[in-house]
Amino acid sequence: MGAFGWPHLLLIFAVIVLLFGATKLPTLARSVGQSARAFKGEMKAMREDDTSPAPVAGGSSEPVAPPAPTSAGIGG
User: Which residue, 33, 29, 9, is CA-closest to 20?
Assistant: First the structure.
């Protein structure tokens, strides 16, 4: 089993044209391009979030402990 060749790609393109029609192909290609751009932008934003340092609460470099649990809301 090899990779797709030109005959395979032409057959796939012909099926797409039959399914969607030649008039809808530009709209379909435009929407695929917009989706790809949005996905690329989100992936870039995620990478930037991973590389930027997280803001530290209180301005000190020490980790902040969460508040201790209370018994006020437990047991009704």
Answer: 29
Angle, in degrees to the nearest 10, between helices 6-20 and 25-51: 110
Residue 74 lies in a domain: no
Residue 10 in domain: no
Containing 19, the helix (H) or strand (E) segment is helix 6-20
Residue 76 lies in a domain: no
DSSP one-letter code for 59: G
- pLDDT tens profile 41-68: 999 999 888 776 666 555 555 666 677 7
> What is the reported pLDDT for 38?
96
Please state, in angstroms and rounded to a whole number, the distance separating the CA atoms of residues 6 and 3: 10
Domain that holds residue 43: 25-49
